[in-house]
Amino acid sequence: MRILLIGSGGREHALAWKLSQSTHASRIFVAPGNGGTAALPDCCNVPIETDDLPELLRFARKSAIDLTVVGPEVPLVSGLADQFAVEGLHVFGPTAAAAKLEGSKAFSKAFLQRNAIPTAWARTFTDFETAADFATGLDSLPVIKASGLAAGKGVLLPETGDDIADQLRALMVERRFGDAGNTILIEERLFGPELSVLAFCDGKDFRLMPAAQDHKRLLDGDFGPNTGGMGAFAPSPLASPELLTEVERTVMRPALAAMNAEGAAYQGILYAGLILTETGPKVLEFNCRFGDPEAQVILPLLDCDLLEVMTACVHGRLAGCALGWSSESAVTVVMASRGYPEAYETGKLVTGLPSGELGEDGAFAFHAGTRLGTADPHRDQVVTNGGRVLSVTATGATLDEAAAGAYRIVDGIRFDGAVWRTDIGQDSSLGQ
Ligand code: AMP
Ligand code: GLY
């Protein structure tokens, strides 16, 4: 099969690596890819941006692509799967109507409420004055969320009563995230550890993956600003079989049944961001794709052919598909550029990467923000090209062994201004 994989991060390097192991994969094109995907066998980068739907469609048609796999949310929310379907092209990932579970937090919240899926209470507003009146009159501090996509930055946690109006003004009046803040949610603040539970879905059936946890804060001990994720581990010690059964019963099964009943059958990855409260797991958000860096710990644990699983999802045949998971644990440590998540420099030479395709057995240096240098002095060498540069994963019999393996690789890698957390995988009580 000829595959088009869309995206350029650590998640996409992990997807390309796992897909390239499939006996059914003949060629994998990655748009636009990174320095890691460029080096995988049978893989090649194509210079098309992830939001250039007309060009992606033209490429898929011209290159006789059998399956398109979408890494990030934006193309899905913009209707990539719908546009490809019109041309008879298969896509692993939801339609625009189904991807609204991530694309519109207002839609998602109303969906959760009308289907009695446990979540924080929330109210939706489109007018600044009304929102500010409501939020400042509450007995406790709420959470403020832009309804639309804001690259993971649209959730604000006011620390004082005064912050509330300032943050609402930034979203609704100053339009910090543009149209994403036209509608906002004021939501009950919940407390507890957070857990990412992802499922492969074929429209009717689903299969859970090992539950993961990610470390969102920049600094050790969960301090500093929020980031796209500084590391992750799976399976989470919090995810007991009982808890996962409860998540299936109260979240995944009703969500898929309701999407089906509402005419937007859900095919692809459904990612439930959960908070484990004293009264049970509640949904903080849905995402319509793999997490980054969750994919970099989940995919190394998948003990079967990812392409077969994705194809089964696309054709509604997940029920007959046996998924295997390793009994090991995986930890990924993100190495970022100094300055991230704010401004950072790029073009720094990366040395000390493990030799071979990705590294030694059970360890993988997934590339995120890298590219191959095109000019001297770094021609054809790996240079930094983003905030999150590498996502170094190792598997092991325990989380501690996996973390030790990942840090062994990290310790050998150098680039100017590299920053990383030293405590990834050590604390499963992550959360508020
Ligand atoms: P979201 O994009 O909705 O998952 O929100 C990003 C992060 O904000 C979450 O991972 C939580 O840490 C935090 N958050 C979101 N909603 C809530 C909530 N209702 N209560 C407490 N924290 C929240
Ligand atoms: N790691 C969080 C996300 O991918 O949304």
Q: Your description of this structure?
A:
The chain is α+β, with helices and mostly antiparallel strands and 432 residues long. It folds into 4 domains: 2-94, Rossmann fold; 122-187, 2-Layer Sandwich (Dna Ligase, domain 1), CATH 3.30.1490.20; 194-320, ATP-grasp fold, B domain (D-amino Acid Aminotransferase, Chain A, domain 1, 2-Layer Sandwich); 329-419, Glycinamide Ribonucleotide Synthetase, Chain A, domain 4. Helices cover 29% and strands 25% of the residues. The protein is built from 13 helices and 23 strands. The protein has helices at residues 10-20, 35-38, 53-62, 73-77, 80-86, 96-103, 105-114, 128-136, 161-172, 241-261, 295-298, 306-314, 399-412, and strands at residues 2-7, 27-32, 43-45, 67-70, 91-92, 122-125, 143-146, 155-156, 184-187, 194-202, 206-208, 213-214, 217-219, 223-226, 231-234, 267-277, 280-287, 329-337, 363-367, 370-372, 382-384, 388-396, 418-419. Strands 12, 15, 18, 19, 22 and 23 form a 6-stranded antiparallel β-sheet that branches. Strand 10 and strand 11 (206-208) form a beta hairpin. Helix 6 (96-103) packs across helix 7 (105-114) and helix 8 (128-136) runs antiparallel to helix 9. It starts with a strand and ends in a 13-residue tail after the last strand. Adenosine monophosphate (AMP) binds at residues 120, 143, 155, 187-190, 194, 273, 284-285, 432.
